[in-house]
Amino acid sequence: MNLHLRRLLLLCLLLPPMYLQAQQASDVKPSPPPDFHFRSTGGIVGFGKSVNTDTRYQPIYLLGDYSRSFKKQPRNRDFVAWYFEPQLVFVRTPKPLDIEFGANLGIRNYIRVNNGFFLYQMLGSGPHYISADVKRQANGFIFSDNLAAGSFVHVGGAMFLNLQFRIRHLSNAELKQPNGGINMWNVLVGLSALP
Prior knowledge:
The protein is mainly β. The protein contains one helix and eight strands. Helix content is 13%, strand content 57%. An eight-stranded antiparallel beta barrel has the order 1-2-3-4-5-6-7-8. The chain is elongated and about 100 Å long.
């Protein structure tokens, strides 16, 4: 028998069983990924600038960042999490340097693009102390209100780059005058571990 004819016959004999086996394997549904609690721990640095023309308030941020989902959910879903953010902030004002410290607590809505890329939006607030005595805002006890959008981008292992744009408002709820508030935009970048 011709070599080509032998190969064709062998192919005809082996192809149908291979096709049937592949078809049966594709009929098996993969098990869904296990549920998990999303959590991230990291640090963030950044800077900001006051949008109030009569106030020079330029923060330089050193922030801790901890976030955890409210409940377990499938790995392929979007989810909501709470976050806690202790802050130490150095502030350029008309004086050479002032400080601000406190903590924010809030919620983040995460949108999972894929396992290496998350988008999020967040809203939070928290008590702070500022040493700056600027024209619009008295120093001392104050509240920080934050609205932000950002992303987590996988950079290797369990590490993710955290990129964020934040709008921030500081005021003291009329506890002390003046209380015109300080509004600012901020750009932040951090590194977080997502175990």
